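# step 3/5: fold
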Amino acid sequence: MKKKAQAKGALQPSPKILVTVRDAQGQDNALAVGYCGNCSYDPPMVMVGIVPSRYSYHMIKENECFVVNLPSKEQEAMFDYLGSHSGYDENKLKAIGANTCNADIVNAALLTDCPVNIECTVVDSIKTGSHEMFIGKVERVHADEKYIDEEGKIDFVKLQLL
């Protein structure tokens, strides 16, 4: 027998990603995002959903770019911290001693401890209620060598993502 269930977050499992952004003054921030996914393979595009009240929201609007960082189980503590603290209160990346470097193409940082980083340029967005979904054209994908197969594809089985 079926029973009515809560609609909020009904589609599970949701990916656990960290999105990094930079504001116009060069300040970096990262946030945990659960509303995300692929939305085109030609050209490659991904989407991330951000609540407008979040600290990072204005950064994506200003710079029109972001980086999707895929954390493995080794980055679980970092993921939990970045998902439970606000950039309104502190510089989260400094607080946890996150290792970062500048992205190659977009104006944002990569979380270098994450095994995969996806540089994206915002090409569109849509307000869907609680979130604004930012559509990002994939500009470059970085992956640790040990996770790339002989065809250049990422071996997601080896990654052991969160």
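# step 4/5: annotate
Strands lie at 17-22, 28-33, 36-41, 44-50, 65-70, 100-102, 109-111, 116-127, 132-143.
# step 5/5: archive (pending)
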